[in-house]
């Protein structure tokens, strides 16, 4: 009897195990070719397939071609080259005489099939930019409010002779510390959100793929940007405060 | 004369950092209509607290306050607020005008709350500002006025709804001597024109203008004196009623 | 002095503060709007696409969606005859989708071929020239990209070849066809070079021994409302085929793009939270700054209700202005984001992710307004409960 290997999710869904017999065919009313399950495999998670929820199995090529009624037809060949052969020269040679097919390097295939994810990446980046803009506005507003709350204190300090530079520096330091604390908390939140995202989508799509990954580079970029925005907002708010006359700060000017 | 304000055995205690501050220790007081009463005393003697209780801004720990026959402790918060709106006028040490509004608009505020029509309250506001000598500054924002001008606008605002009693807490506290004199004159004129005035002050000149002075010390009335008030300046016309 | 002028002056007291709050709300509102458009847009756009030519039911090989795979099913003609005899069915047309080649000068270019039944087709709209007749074995319709690729136009002749054999370097089938018209294929992606012939011609060109095979049958029924019931009945009559109503297709499509719906929900929620936080923080700090003023107003007789109303109105006004600006900004950013997402390979060019619908935009606007107004609850409560005497005492120190 011919043999088949089943993808693990398919075996689980259909309640099949090694040794069982199934019937295959090209159409629902012609599933008459018996095959024996000889193996259950775990396929490598493929992001391109994750949303499709297709059922995969593996057969010997001649048998599959026979079942489909196309005994000498395939979709593609995979070619492994000898160590001393360059892929460019092999491609050139193959495509020179190609008729009805075309040869591609693996990198090109990978790049083309990744287009979907490039689009998703661009989308995520755009959303991130919008979020950062909204956060920056929010941050600036809050910093302004917090600094303005201290205008009477600032006025008194100016009255007693404290320099603008000192007040500015103190407020900037405060803003930077708050920004740094926020970065810490935010990094922790992002890590937790990443865990939750991977757990949720892993279960949702029944896959071992990683959906969210926080790399040191991402952390570094986010921290630097947040610190810059936080300190920048604090600096702007502090500058507005110190350039106002003390009497105006006091409410009398 | 009929009593417009009766305070009976007022006690007020405040919790403060685990301790209790006895701001008032049993103060009784009667204010007659058209009277000019000054409440004087050193800082911490309880005079501002007494004024706040008389005005219904705060509630006593015990004792009662009656304004024109109505006991304040029988009123709901809404009724008390309404009473303050139409029966009382307040003047504060720090003026407390709304800085975003003009002088006229500040004076109109209580009248708008009382439901007066825009035209009527505008006319009355201008009249009151004229009374306090600031008709020419009606369109200026509060922040554009001097301290004395702001206090006069505050007085005009306090008169907006024709109050039975005008309560003032240190009205000259933030003003220089000359400006303070102007305010003194104004209060005297108000009283001469029939308004009952109760002023809390540690300013002897202000106290000297009153018909009766109560001295407070440590939360009690220490002494009381009636004074003859001299007929003051006729610089300004009579108060609009 | 009216309440509105007091409100206007209060918001203008700190113009930069108010402007920043409005800007923050506008950006959040724009994001909210975009996410609302995204969550409903996918479904709406896809449904519109599927119903573009009025065919409410699709029949495909079992377990597949239209043009999802290269699978075909036999006996298309027999199935069509059976369908056309159904009283509920107004028209039915089979389609075969296949890849094939066209001769352009000395080279072969890859094309996508549609084999159609012109008398009952739901795949294209004619732009230039004329349509195919049902028995037109010598005619072909081209998409504009195909016409450019083949360097040809209406009235010219093109050669389509199929079943290429690389061993003998020849095409087993070659047909010379006259270009009858240029059409816009509803389900083509941007730049897709597609050609269309009548079904028997394409079956002969197909790179498999096609016979009477088709990829898809499109069915138009007389009563839109009965689509679900008719689909269920056809499914029982044709158990070897997958019968899908528009609702079924939309459901499947939504499942494929579930990530975007979930993302839109999360981002929309976050936008609302940001709006609420911004308005609440601004009003709380502003109220705290004005507690002395508020205590004075209460002392001179203004009721709690007046104070609370004023605080509420400030929050509502900021949200209204920010929301209005956010609407304009949101429509602009939606266009930009749609441009990104519609560059997904293989996505029909007519498809949109961000679709503005009056009901959802109105709902989003209402939710934003209510949220922004409710954000004033806490500061209004602060203002209302401020003890007059204690506050005045604190102000005096």
Structural class of chain C: alpha+beta
Give the tally of β-strands of chain C.
10
Low-confidence stretches of chain C: none
The helicity of chain A comes to 55-70%
Strand content of chain C: 15-25%
Looking at how many chains there are and whether they match, the oligomeric state comes to heterotrimer
User: What is the N-to-C succession of helices and strands of chain C?
Assistant: HHEHEEEEHEEEHEHEHHHHHHH
Shape annotation of chain A: elongated
Q: Overall pLDDT of chain A, averaged?
A: 88
C-alpha Rg of chain A (nearest Å): 32 Å
By DSSP (H or I, 4+ residues per run), the number of helices of chain C equals 13
- Helix proportion range of chain C: 40-55%
List the strand order in the largest sheet of chain A: 2-3-1-4
What can be said about the biggest beta sheet of chain A? 4 strands, mixed
Question: How much is the average pLDDT of chain C?
Answer: 89
Kindly, what is the distance between the CA atoms of the first and last residues of chain C, rounded to a whole number of angstroms? 31 Å
Q: Care to count the β-strands of chain A?
A: 4
What is the topological layout?
The complex is a heterotrimer of chains A (253), B (241) and C (397).
Chain A: E1 2-7, H1 8-14, E2 21-24, E3 33-41, E4 57-59, H2 61-68, H3 87-96, H4 106-113, H5 115-148, H6 151-159, H7 164-204, H8 216-242, H9 246-250
Chain B: E1 3-16, E2 19-32, E3 36-40, H1 47-54, E4 62-67, E5 70-71, H2 77-87, E6 88-91, H3 103-113, H4 118-131, H5 147-158, E7 165-169, H6 177-192, E8 196-201, H7 204-209, E9 212-217, E10 220-226
Parallel strand pairs in B: 3-8, 3-9, 6-7, 7-8
Antiparallel strand pairs in B: 1-2, 1-4, 4-5, 9-10
Helix pairs in contact in B: 3-4, 3-5, 4-5, 5-6
Chain C: H1 3-13, H2 15-50, E1 57-61, H3 76-84, E2 89-104, E3 107-116, E4 124-129, E5 139-142, H4 144-150, E6 157-165, E7 170-185, E8 194-198, H5 199-205, E9 216-221, H6 227-237, E10 241-245, H7 246-256, H8 258-289, H9 291-299, H10 304-341, H11 358-374, H12 377-385, H13 388-396
Parallel strand pairs in C: 3-8, 5-7
Antiparallel strand pairs in C: 1-9, 1-10, 2-3, 2-6, 2-9, 4-7, 5-8, 6-7
């Amino acid at each position: 009897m011919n043999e088949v290997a089943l993808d693990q999710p398919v075996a689980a869904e259909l309640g099949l195990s090694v040794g069982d017999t199934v019937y295959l065919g090209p159409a629902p009313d012609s599933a008459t070719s018996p095959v024996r399950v000889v193996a259950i495999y775990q396929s490598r998670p493929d992001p391109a397939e994750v949303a499709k929820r297709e059922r995969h199995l593996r057969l010997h090529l001649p048998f599959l071609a026979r079942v489909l009624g196309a005994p000498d037809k395939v979709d593609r060949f995979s070619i492994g080259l000898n160590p001393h052969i360059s892929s460019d020269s092999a491609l050139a040679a193959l495509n020179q005489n190609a008729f009805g097919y075309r040869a591609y390097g693996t990198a090109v295939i990978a790049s083309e099939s990744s287009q979907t994810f490039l689009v998703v990446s661009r989308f995520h980046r755009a959303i991130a930019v919008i979020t950062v803009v909204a956060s920056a506005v929010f941050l600036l507003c809050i910093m302004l409010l917090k600094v303005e709350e201290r205008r009477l204190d600032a006025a008194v300090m100016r009255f007693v002779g404290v320099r603008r530079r000192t007040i500015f520096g103190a407020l900037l330091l405060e803003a930077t510390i708050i920004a740094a604390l926020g970065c810490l908390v935010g990094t922790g939140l992002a890590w937790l959100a990443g865990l939750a995202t991977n757990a949720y989508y892993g279960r949702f799509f029944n896959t071992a793929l990683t959906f969210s990954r926080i790399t040191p580079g991402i952390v570094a970029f986010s921290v630097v940007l947040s610190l810059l925005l936080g300190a920048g907002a604090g600096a702007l708010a502090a500058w507005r405060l110190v350039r106002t006359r003390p009497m105006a700060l006091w409410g009398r000017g | 004369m009929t009593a417009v304000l009766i305070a009976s055995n007022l006690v007020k205690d405040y919790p403060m950092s685990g301790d209790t501050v006895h701001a008032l220790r049993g103060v009784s007081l009667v204010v007659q209509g058209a009277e000019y009463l000054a409440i004087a005393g050193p800082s911490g003697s309880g005079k501002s607290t007494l004024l706040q209780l008389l005005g219904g801004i705060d509630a006593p720990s015990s004792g009662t306050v009656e304004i024109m026959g109505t006991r304040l402790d029988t009123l709901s918060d809404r009724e008390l607020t309404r009473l303050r709106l139409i029966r009382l006028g307040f003047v504060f040490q720090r003026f407390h005008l709304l800085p975003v509004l003009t002088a006229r608009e500040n004076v109109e505020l209580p009248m708008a709350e009382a439901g007066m029509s825009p035209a009527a309250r505008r006319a009355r506001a201008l009249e009151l500002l004229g009374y306090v000598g600031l008709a020419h500054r009606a369109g200026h924002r509060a922040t554009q006025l001097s301290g004395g001008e702001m206090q006069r606008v505050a007085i005009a605002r306090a008169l907006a709804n024709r109050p039975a009693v005008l309560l003032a807490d240190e009205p000259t506290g933030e003003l220089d001597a000359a400006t303070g004199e102007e305010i003194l004159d104004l209060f005297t004129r108000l009283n001469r024109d029939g308004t009952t005035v109760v002023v809390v002050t540690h300013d002897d000149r202000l106290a000297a203008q009153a018909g009766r002075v109560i001295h407070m010390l440590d939360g009690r009335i220490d002494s009381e004196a009636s004074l003859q008030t001299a007929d003051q300046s006729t610089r300004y016309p009579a108060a609009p009623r | 002095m009216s309440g509105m002028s007091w409100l206007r002056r209060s918001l203008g007291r700190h113009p930069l503060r108010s402007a920043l709050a409005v800007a923050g709300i506008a950006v959040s509102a724009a994001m909210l709007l975009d996410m609302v458009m995204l969550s409903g847009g996918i479904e709406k756009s896809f449904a519109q696409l599927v119903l573009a030519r009025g065919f409410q039911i699709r029949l495909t090989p079992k377990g597949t969606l239209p043009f999802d795979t290269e699978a075909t099913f036999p006996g298309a003609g027999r199935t069509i005859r059976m369908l056309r005899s159904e009283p509920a069915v107004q028209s039915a047309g089979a389609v075969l989708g296949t890849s094939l080649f066209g001769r352009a000068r000395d080279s072969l270019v890859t094309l996508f071929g549609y084999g159609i039944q012109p008398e009952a087709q739901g795949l294209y709209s004619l732009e230039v020239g004329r349509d195919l007749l049902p028995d037109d074995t010598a005619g072909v319709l081209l998409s504009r990209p195909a016409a450019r690729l083949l360097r040809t136009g209406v009235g010219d002749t093109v050669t389509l070849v199929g079943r290429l054999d690389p061993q003998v370097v020849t095409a087993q089938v070659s047909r010379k066809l006259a270009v009858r018209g240029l059409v816009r294929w509803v389900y083509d992606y941007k730049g897709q070079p597609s050609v269309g012939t009548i079904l028997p011609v394409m079956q002969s060109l197909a790179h498999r021994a096609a016979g009477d095979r088709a990829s898809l049958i499109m069915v138009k029924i007389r009563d839109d409302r009965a689509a679900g019931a008719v689909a269920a009945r056809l499914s029982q009559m044709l158990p070897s085929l997958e019968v899908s109503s528009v609702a079924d297709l939309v459901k499947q499509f939504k499942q494929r793009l579930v990530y975007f719906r979930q993302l839109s929900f999360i981002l929309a929620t976050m936008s609302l939270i940001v709006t609420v936080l911004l308005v609440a923080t601004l009003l709380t700090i502003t109220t705290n700054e004005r507690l002395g003023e508020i205590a004075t107003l209460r002392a001179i007789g203004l009721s709690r209700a007046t104070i609370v109303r004023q605080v509420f109105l400030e929050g509502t006004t900021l949200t209204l202005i920010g929301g209005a600006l956010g609407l304009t900004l949101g429509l602009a950013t939606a266009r930009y984001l749609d441009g990104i997402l519609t560059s997904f390979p293989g996505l029909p060019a007519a498809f949109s992710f961000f679709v503005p619908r009056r009901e959802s935009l109105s709902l989003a606007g209402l939710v934003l307004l209510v949220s922004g107004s409710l954000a004033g609850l806490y500061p209004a409560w602060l203002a209302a409960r401020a003890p007059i005497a204690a506050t005045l005492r604190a102000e005096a120190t």
